[in-house]
Queue: 2 jobs
Job 1
Amino acid sequence: MELRINRRALVGLGLAVAVAASSMAVLRTDSGVASSHREAPAISNDPQHDNTDVYAFVSPDKPDSVTLISNWIPFEEPNGGPNFYPFAVKSRHNIKIDNDGDGKTDITYEWTFRNEDKRGNDTFLYNNGPVTSLNDENLLFRQRYTLKRITPGGSKTLVSDGIVAPSNVGAASMPDYATLRNQAIKSLPGGGKTYSGQADEAFFLDLRAFDLLYGGDLSEVGQDTLKGYNVNTVALQVPQADLALKGDPKRNPVIGVCSTTDKFNGSSYVQVSRLCNPLVNELVAAAGMKDAYNALDPSQDADVKALVNRVTNPELARLLETFYGIKAPATPRNDLVQIFLTGLAKNNGPIKADLNAQSLNKDAGKQRGSEQLRLNMSIPVTKDPNRLGVLGGDLQGFPNGRRLSDDVVDIELQAVAGAAQSGKLIPGLTDKVDANDKPFDKTFPYIPLPSNVAVNQR
């Protein structure tokens, strides 16, 4: 199959983002641990702090707003009691916005969680009867949270005593989980909503990429590895003006998004997880880099020579050539540097397309390369989204932000193999997992309800 795409569609090189970011990690080797589905040695031992996926998209039913979603704790087996899956306490869960392109955070949405545990020495149960509301006395363990919006000008508390939707224990314990979710959605002052709680693992892919790239002959594909698992989610829907530079999304429509986790080490908070674009550490970073990447601030990215080298000469492209005979595009891949460290603008590199560089913001100043999930909020909502995003001619899709339905694995595989430069998709280069097993909701928070059925029963 072939797909002709125009110059603007070259932005669809999603995997190069991954290529870019991981390499930055080599600069620091002290306190950082990598994120995204336990791919780094250190974070595999600390799942509560493992930041798995980030999504950023214009809200389809409220297009004057943007929805931001960040997930934690990979591979939550629904029947994993008795303690199930609380958010980490004594930690900060963050979604960060850079709206001027200098790599520094301009806005932080910060969630902190605390426990209410009534089990004591009386019971091992999470709940001692059916739970029909968040305040139900039968729910013996619950979490509450505080949500703050932090800018250089100060901090504002948006939610002071929110209740987290609990883990979905099972049909007897929680006969109507949708009601619990709806009760956990909080309205925000000035417009917007937030949700914290369990959700379906909406990232769909075949993780056998790590068995010599799908078995060395693309025989190991078509199995949604994450089907049936859950995650912990924080979701936020806010007016575009709350995110845009100078509060003006018409003049300044592009934002950069990352999510991080800060862990308290006894005396201070230390960043231990960072996730911007999907699959950065999983498919790009060499093993020795993975634990360092997530300690890095995006403003430091451009200074890491190892990162730049892995962008301009990506390992994955060489592996695709070795295993599948797909000739790697000529290096240096300066197009990938433009796409994944600067965003796309006609005047910042060889790809002459204005799409998602913060330099397109009329009030932006000096730019600095950094790995971020960049979203142009002015791109209209697509009526019929294409799972291949920009690579499929859908400019609202990944890597212009990331929607829940974007097939980032196929996009990234095709992109790193050179499909965006050639204008042709490479036949057969796919993990054959094209959609989530559960449909996405049409209203906030969009991500499906968590499963309560054991994965080994599916």
Job 2
Amino acid sequence: MTIAMFKNSINNYIIIACLALPCAACNVPALTQRAANKATPAGYNNDTPADTANTARVQWKQFFTDPYLAVLIDSALNSNQELNITLREIEISQAEIQARKGEYLPFLSARAGAGIEKSPRYTNIGALEESTEIVPDKERPEPLPDYQAGLYATWEIDIWHKLRNAKKAAVLRYLATVEGKNFMVTNLIAEIANSYYELLALDNQLAIVKQNIEIQNNAFKIVKMQKDAARVTELAVRRFEAQVLNTKSIQYDIEQKITETENKLNFLLGRYPRPIPRNMQGFEAMVPDVVHAGLPSQLLANRPDIRQAEQDLAAAKLDVAVAKARFYPSFGISASVGYRAFNPSYLLKTPESLLYSLTGDLTAPLINRNAIKATYYTASAKQLQAVYNYERVILNAYVEVANQLAKISNLGKSYGLKSQQVQALSRSVNISNALFQSTRADYMEVLLTQRDALEARFELIETKKSQMNALVNVYHALGGGW
């Protein structure tokens, strides 16, 4: 018999057996499934013209040109513990694929054994053995030894693609873990870049505070001289002294924030605390690059988290198919071939000691299918969860990009106005000091002007930091960096 003839005979046997089964074996509960909505708006807002150019396609090394920042990101991609944990998850998913693949292939095992058996004399088996001569004129050994060696094979024929679909689902989940790793890379790069720009902003704020302390100390000395000349009271001296002390306390608050931000970066880099090399100059002169947001539909291809949700959705659909196939009959084949004898010298004697078997079995659930139904309903519910999660991820991606694009635009306008405010207040400080020395201005005007100027410069630095963070965040939101 050829292999093709054997397969045909098996298929005919399965069809006849399935027709003979009760309808309940093939009656699958009906479920309502839902397709995912992938539709996205034509643009992120009405003011932005549609453009197919997309910043997300730029690699992070070309997007972040600061050499100190590039070194930090590169080190984190090699040493970050959370990223390395995710890489091990990918290895686990690869192993799961091999396990699922092996389930629909034949299982072949070798077995060898030895034993001894004594049957009671007054039983049908004992009576037959007593009257049987295995070798003429030679009594049967009692008790009877048993030696055997052979090959055994089992194979479940995957009629309804239950096992193949389980393997495909494992492949899709492996691809989802890869996309999850890519999304983590994007998040890690964005977090490091934002922390780096925060560190630069703190450095500039610290420099501003030190400059103000020097200015306030000079003003404090002048006030004390004027007090000695009876031109101001002791109240003015104490107010100026309190202002100097308050500014010095701000200095130590900023130094603490610098330490915490450096340690946060060191943690992301997977190392113990140490100073972070950085370019402390030129932060205020940084200008965010022009961002090409592209089309919202491009998010489906560029965002790793969207692709991850898409792979999870496809795997969930296959899980429903696998659960559904459990209602149908399954067909298995088992075979064995080997040798068995009561004496090792007869073990390889052919055909007397030869044994072989070939069995086919068909099984189908008939009664008490609650466990199968529960698995089926669970798989269906998880498929609906995957649909809603996929739609949520797409919506979240669109909202993130729209928010960051608006933020970049508004921060640019705000920074221009704050720059003008700082220039005006800086001139006011010089004017107030000169008027105070000529007794044409009250000391409170000097204090308030210095405080306003300090706050305005702080806000200018914060706005610049927000600009750079928005640039990083829109690059992240578009799906770049991985």
